[in-house]
Write a structure and sequence with these properties.
The structure is a single chain. The protein has about 220 residues and is α/β, with parallel strands linked by helices. It is built from seven helices and eight strands. The strands form two sheets. Strands 5-4-3-6-7-8 form a six-stranded mixed β-sheet, with helices on both faces. Strands 1-2 form a two-stranded antiparallel ribbon. Strand 3, helix 3 and strand 4 form a beta-alpha-beta unit.
Length: about 220
């Protein structure tokens, strides 16, 4: 799964290597931008990785929820792939950034989530703002959260914290967070591939050592 994901992410130019200044001010040797899965082939391949992760983990849920905006096409396509490839028919839902005061109104669009088990899908969790908003919306609809699935767990300590953003979310909300792949997987992938230099790998390992979570306690 990780090898497939990294190959399609690199092909889509969504996973890049070099020097990138993050919002935190950290200089990262890699950068992931899920927005570059921007055509039918790329998005289908990405969503297929999510669908396979859901099947592999045997996650039990009724509705996929995609936080606006990147999560919306993901939720729709993952739901379609789950049905097409795995015979699993689930609903999907997403939120508007602003409530609509005409037509059907409201903030939520799509499948009714009242009383349902909802699985949130998003690209990455950085500050976790979009996920927090989704959790509040879902909680106010008398639904339960089955978990969150993201593409990449950066496995690094959040600025000013002692845990990563994903660890903090797990501790605060008490539901599972699944990642299609992780920073550890990425370093292993690079180490086993001839396309990366020893310097590339060294930079990744140094970044992990400087900012990585304690994997024993994660």
């Amino acid at each position: 799964m990780s090898i497939q994901f990294f190959n399609i992410a690199i092909e889509a130019d969504a996973l890049k290597f070099g020097q990138y200044t993050l919002k935190s001010g950290r200089i990262s040797p890699y950068f992931f931008n899920a927005g570059l899965f921007n055509d039918g082939k790329k998005l289908y391949e990405l969503a297929s990785c999510y669908a396979q992760k859901i099947i592999d983990e045997a996650i039990e849920f009724d509705v996929l929820f995609g936080p606006a905006y990147k999560g919306i096409p993901l939720a729709a396509l993952i739901a379609s792939i789950l049905y097409q490839k795995h015979g699993m028919n689930v609903g999907f839902c997403y939120n508007r950034k602003e409530a609509k005061d005409h037509g059907e109104g409201g903030v939520l669009v799509g499948s009714d989530i009242d009383g349902k088990r909802v699985l949130i899908v998003d690209d990455v969790i950085t500050a976790g703002t979009a996920i927090k908003q989704a959790v509040d919306l879902i909680g106010s609809s008398n639904a339960t959260i089955a978990g969150v699935v993201v593409a990449l767990d950066r496995q690094e300590i959040a600025p000013g914290e002692k845990v990563s953003a994903i660890q903090a979310l797990k501790q605060r909300c008490h539901f599972p967070v699944y990642a299609v792949t992780t920073l550890q997987d990425l370093i292993k992938f690079m180490s086993n591939s001839s396309r990366f230099s020893a310097e590339n790998i060294k930079q990744m390992q140094a970044y992990q050592q400087a900012y990585g979570i304690d994997f024993i306690s994660s």
